[in-house]
Structures are given as C-alpha cells and as structure tokens.
Amino acid sequence: MRLMHTALPDFIAKMKDAAKKNVPGKNISIKGLENLQSAKMQSLRTGRIEKAVEELALRDDIDGVEMIVMPRVPETMHTVVIKGVGKDGKAQKAIVDVINILHPTEEAVLSDCTEIEDRRPPIGRH
Amino acid sequence: MAALRYKIIPKGVIDGKVIPLNVVFVLKKDVDAAGITDDRAIHEIAKNTQGASGISIFDMDAVTTTSDGIMIDGAIIKMGAADNGLVNPDFGILAMAEIPYSDQIVEEEPHLIQWKKSYSGRKLFRGPDPSEKIIPVHNVVISGRAANNNSATEMMDIVTMEEILLPILGQMQCITGGDVLVGMTGEMISVGIGMTIAEKFGRVFPTRQFKAGESAHDCGIYAKTLKKDIPCIVAEKRVLADYTMKAIENGCVPARELGCSPVVLCVAKHMGAEIDVGRITAGAQAELDAVGITREFLAEKIPALSREEILRRADELLPGVENAKKINAKEIVLEKEISVG
Predict the structure, then answer these.
(1) What's the half-sphere exposure (Cβ side, CA atoms, 13 Å) at A126?
(2) Does the ipTM exceed 0.90?
(3) Is the pLDDT of residue B269 over 50?
(4) Chain A contact for B159, CB < 8 A?
(5) pLDDT for B74-114, tens place per residue?
(6) What are the b/e assignments for B14-41, b being 16+ CB within 10 Å?
(7) If exposure means fewest CB atoms within 10 Å of the residue's CB, which of A77, B97, B155, B184 is most exposed?
(8) What is the largest CA-CA distance in chain A?
(9) B123 Ramachandran zone, left/alpha/beta (phi>0; psi -120 to 50)
C-alpha cells in the first residue's frame, strides 16, 4: 500500500522541509527513530505532523523544533530470535523467545513545557 | 480545606544505596478522610512532588500475599506513577482487584487456607484484573520516567535505568514505622523472586501461570544474577520469619502450597516442618543448587527450633538481603500533609 504509508527517509525529509518552509533558518531535530533502518510511517498522521512542525516553526518565539518519537504504549512486547550460525554463515538453529521492554511515556519530555496541546486520538483509534 | 496525609521516601541515597525515585505510601483511610477519590489523591500528590515517583495506596485492614504465597496484613489497592506532577492518562494508575472469598478459590489456590484460618472476613487484594487495563500490559503503571511495577513492589526510573525492589513486607514496615533492612538484593533474593505460586490476578502474573515448586525464571544458574545487584528495602528478618512460620503453621507446605524460595525452605527446615521436595521441579532445583540450597541440604536433618528461637535468630537463620543496614523506618520515611480542597 504505497500510498497509505510514508517511507522512513521520506518522513524525515518531510519534517525537515516543514520546519524550513516559511523560515529557512529554522531546523528540526528528530529523536527516537535512530534504531529504525526501514519503516513505513502512517501517512494519515504524517501530514498532520508536518502541519504541526510548520505551525510551531512559524512562531516568532520558537527558534527550532524538536521532535521526539516514543512508544505510546510504554510496554512493548518484542520477539527475540537467537540464531546459531555455522562457519559457512548458514544458520544452524534458531530459538525464538519474547521480551517486554518498558519505555518512558511523554511526561518525561513534557514537564518543562507550559503549553501542551494533545492532538492524539484515544488508544485504539488512529 | 481538606488535608491529605501520606508518607514518602524521597529520591536520594540511604546508606550508599540509591533510591532512584520518590516512593510514596498513602493509606486508603487518609484518602477517605480527605474526602477525595484514590485517583485524585495520586494526582494531588503528584502535583506536590518533584521528579519521578511511585505512589501506592494501601488498605491496612485488607490482606495480600507475597510472591511465594505467604499471607500478610495490609494490601496495596491501587498503584500510580508520576513524573514532575504529571500522571499518564492511559497508563499512570491501576487498581488491584479484590478477590471475593469462596471455598472454591481456596480449593483452587490452596495457599489461601491461610485466609480461611487466620484472616477470615478480611478483603484480599494482589494484582490487577487484566480486563481493567486499557491494553494487556504487565502489572505496571508508567508516567514519564517513573515505573511502578509488579503491582507496586518494584519501582524504577526508566531513563536512568536505576531500580529499587520493594517487597511488600518492607513497605508495610515503612508505613507502620518498624525496622527495615536497606541493602542489595543478592543471589538469594534473585532466585527467591522467581519461586512464585499460582494465583488469579496475582502480584506478578494475571493468570495461574506458575505453580508452587516451579520457577518462573526457569533459567538455571542465570537466576541468581537476574536481580542480584538492586537496592532494596525489606522488612527485618524476624517479621518475614514470623509470617512464614504462621503460613506453615496454617498447614501450608513449601513447594506444595507455598513457593520454594530459599527463605521459605530455610524457615521450614529450621521448624522441622515438611517440605514437598518431590514437587520442586528440576528447573527450580537447578536455581536453588546455584545458591547452595541443594537436595542434600534440604534432606539434612537438623534439630527443630522453637518459634521463639527462630524469631530471635532470624537474622542468622534466614537468607536474603546483602550488605544491609537495619534502620528504623521513621528515620527514612517522611510524613507529609497537603491541602486538597
């Protein structure tokens, strides 16, 4: 579904463009996507987020934009694949297990902010 | 203007052990006296507390169980997490489920014979009902950096990744002003934590996933290092010995009705009480072997000690916390009062 989702590099480029759209000197820093090598980002939200970046960058009292992407559900369950690889590079055996990872929620990066506008839909809606 | 009283161990250092976040104890009766809801109490305390906090509400008239199945006085009925005044709207507060008494549940969970015999009529709370969670996460609440986990018995700052283990009996001592041991978990506790019993809506597991005699960790020699180097605040050992003996006196047998944790096994051995060694699984025994609780150790006959002697010599007889200092809770727990009108 090429049109429904945005490729990760395109997402990042769009955010940089949105920050500079009206004031070329304004930059954006993006944290939380460093470990993603490839991903398709939800397009429905990509446009809204571009708009939010532009909206903040437009303000005279804002010098730069920070974007932090974090799991909304603070406990994520991950599959762990443990592979034993032979000298020829071929996997000989794999054990598959699971591990939960706890993450901080948005309050960790919001406490220094006086004006917070929460545009998220309830969990379960997109 | 109504007032809300609570107690707090502030983030900091106690005897060289790091307390990674504020640990807050609130009594349900004080919430009721303030005329506000439990959730409002958590939010009000959050607003008045700087930094990351784990906030737990206790009903001291209720009862709960330890992870190895010992029933004790008092229970956590709601847990919260807060960071610089903010409580996450979806994952920041979670209530424990009240378990209604029935003969059927005593049959299904035989360690609850303690409830029938010694705590009749008391409310029982352990962990949350998973259907009350917005999605099926673990028994944890998280707001910002603060995580209040395993039904409020371990807390952490997820960003600094520092953690503190707060077994329920130690928390009760903090509330009542008794003596606690502030130390590091060590290998015995690391192994013991995994020796759980099967409970519906349990402190750690929502279903009856692991039975007495089994190890939830099930990782052989690695169990002793899983939670080996974590600061902890636990009850002085005579308190743990007292409750463990009471469970055994009520007819509970280690590895059958009770978990086969090193403490439970050692108390039973010194009492000369039965241990259902045959029900200790190979996986659990491998973890016990790694800390010296071998089949030979369990089979070795020693003179049975009286209840009074076990209590008197609890510090010497019971394994557990390492590098510990005995401190009266009043020295580390601060009393607070805030207006909540």
Answers:
(1) 7
(2) no
(3) yes
(4) yes
(5) 999 999 999 999 999 999 999 999 999 999 999 999 999 99
(6) beebbbbbbbbbbbbebbeebebebbeb
(7) A77
(8) 60
(9) beta
Contact A107 B144 (CB under 8 A): yes
Question: Three-class SS of residue A31?
Answer: strand
For A24, the 3-state DSSP assignment is coil
Distance CA B122, CA B101 (A): 9
CA gap B238, B242 in Å, rounded: 6
| pLDDT score of B137 | 81
Burial (0-12, 13-18, 19+ Cβ within 10 Å), B262: buried
* Residue bearing tokens 């909206």: A55
Chain A residues near residue B163 by CB distance under 8 angstroms? none
Nearest CA in chain B to A71: B144
In angstroms, the Cα distances linking B62 to B5, B28, B122 are 20, 11, 5
Those residues with Cβ within 8 angstroms of residue A91's Cβ, 6 or more apart along the chain or in another chain: A83, A84, A85
Q: In what order do the strands lie in the sheet containing B52-65? A: B93-95, B71-83, B52-65, B22-27, B3-9, B334-339
Tens-digit pLDDT profile for residues A102-112: 999 999 999 88
Half-sphere exposure in the Cβ direction for A37 (13 Å, CA): 0
- The residues pairing with B174 across neighbouring beta strands, listed in sequence order, are none
A107 contacts B134? CB cut-off 8 A = no
CA distance A82 to A79: 10
Identify residue B340 by its one-letter amino acid code.
V
Q: Which residues have a Cβ under 8 Å from the Cβ of B10 and sit 6 or more positions away?
A: B19, B22, B334
Chain B residue numbers touching A73 (CB-CB < 8 A): 91, 135, 137
Amino acid at position B20, single letter = P
pLDDT per residue as tens digits for the range B118-153: 999 999 999 999 999 988 888 999 999 999 999 999
